[in-house]
Amino acid sequence: MNRILVLVRHGQSEWNLKNLFTGWKDPDLTEKGVAEAVAAGEKLRDLRIRFDVAYTSVLTRAQHTLRLILDGIGQADLETIRDQALNERDYGELTGLNKDDARARFGEEQVHIWRRSFDVPPPGGESLKDTATRVLPYFEAEILPRVLKGENVLVAAHGNSLRALIMELEGLNGEEILARELDTGIPIVYRLSEDGEIVSKDVLKD
């Protein structure tokens, strides 16, 4: 029996649209983001997966995405667990800055290092390594055990918190996961064996 784990990055947020570093700030979805979440629900409905539990962060954009997906698959009353362990990477002093303005303020090379190195955090914020240190213990203690006992689990979260999960699931190193782009509103469907090995992976793009 395959065990199903589905990961979905939230739909486009208001700050994604404005090209701002968002982190733990709490903008909602744009109209496009709502449409992406609705489309994600339609794709999952076509697979006819019945989920046993859903997980999300404490941030509005992820929770809104999850609600729209659950409405779309006819599981609006599904048990849903929210935890800040699944929040986006904290961008510290970059939070709220337009990415072009950040380059002008700190220098293009420095901003590139903060964005694309595995273990160098921006001032007052988290690196991807720090984010993984926060996310992975929660995943291993709360989410993965439910998958491994045969439950179908849906996680709606953020680009970097999901990168941490994917790094663990796929055995990637820091450079490999940093090169992995996650599109907004696109479900990634993993089927796992009883020992947590990946049997198959499907990215539900159009």
TrEMBL record:
Substrate binds at residues 9-16, 22-23, 61, 88-91, 99, 115-116, 159-160. The active site is at 10 (tele-phosphohistidine intermediate), 88 (proton donor/acceptor). GO terms for molecular function: phosphoglycerate mutase activity. The record marks 158 as: Transition state stabilizer. SMART domains: PGAM. One of its GO terms (biological process) is glycolytic process. The keyword Isomerase applies. The keyword Methyltransferase does not apply. It comes from the Bacteria. Coiled coil: none annotated. Pathway: Carbohydrate degradation; glycolysis; pyruvate from D-glyceraldehyde 3-phosphate: step 3/5. Belongs to the phosphoglycerate mutase family. BPG-dependent PGAM subfamily. Homodimer. This is 2,3-bisphosphoglycerate-dependent phosphoglycerate mutase. It comes from Methylobrevis albus.
